[in-house]
Amino acid sequence: MRLAFIMSELGSGLRRNLTMVISVILVTFVSLTFVGAAGLLQMQIGQLKGFWYDKVQVTIYLCTDIPANSNCVSGPVTPDQKATIEGMLESPAVKPYIENWTFETQEEALAHFREQFANSPMVDSVEAGNLPSSFRIKLDDPEKYQIINETFSATPGVDSVVDQRKVLEKLFSWMNIATYVAMGVAGLMIICAALLIATTIRLSAQSRMREIDIMRLVGASKTVIQLPFVLEGVIAATIGALLASGAVWSIVVFFMGGYLADANTGTPFISAREALVIYPVLILLGVVLAGVASAVSLRKNLKV
């Protein structure tokens, strides 16, 4: 009997406040979509870090005709200086930190440059002599870059020592900023959703004050009176959370797994299966948000 009464009151409330319920659904949908997008971005950052950090190299650029520092004042790197650097790479003090290394000539550097900048008008103006030869080093542990830097930065014939990881860290820092912005917008939208849910439930309760008074007189408990109103907010927010989950799934499958994956074939993107962890979080967040907002609104505005 009580369940039938609660369901009847719930259906009546949803019909009477259909416009407000739709508003709650839409606001919850937008806010939780931002939350889901921020979660996706953070997961993608983690996956890219694991992928690229395993591939990053330390590059030792050798001197060219144009001196860039005191190591290069005597001119381009000499065969003896190059041999000395190779010996240092194979020395017991350095070799344990290195997984492998290769040497790139100026001609090979020019070929790579032309491949990377094939569509640039400057590609024909660059010659092999403008580009430095280099040693490309893959470390066992990328965190040990400083050892290589300290060992080779002052060596004659070395122009500079560059850690590619630092370039990636700048990119990842910008991606982290984007995540924080998305989370900030999501937080504001969640606050808006909570206020809208609270307002909707309060108006729904006030529009049925006569029915509530009758229920008090016949001895209905506080839980029985308030539960239909709470369920209104929970149902609306759950629908919004389900729509947000669908939007996040679409982003993963069609945008990240489709458009971005096709345009960046060498880059790994998170799959729909990996993103499954986000969907229950969004639904749970929607239910908790609606339940708390509804309960607080009823406690403050509906004295039972």
UniProtKB/TrEMBL annotation:
It is a multi-pass membrane protein. Residues 185-300 form the ABC3 transporter permease C-terminal domain. Gene3D superfamilies: 3.30.70.3040. Residues 56-161 form the FtsX extracellular domain. It holds the Pfam family FtsX. One of its GO terms (cellular component) is plasma membrane. The chain crosses the membrane at residues 21-45, 177-203, 224-257, 277-298. Keywords: Cell cycle, Cell division, Cell membrane, Membrane, Transmembrane, Transmembrane helix. It comes from the Bacteria. It is found in: Cell membrane. One of its GO terms (biological process) is cell division. Belongs to the ABC-4 integral membrane protein family. FtsX subfamily. Forms a membrane-associated complex with FtsE. NCBIfam families: FtsX_actino. PANTHER family: CELL DIVISION PROTEIN FTSX. Part of the ABC transporter FtsEX involved in cellular division. This is Cell division protein FtsX.
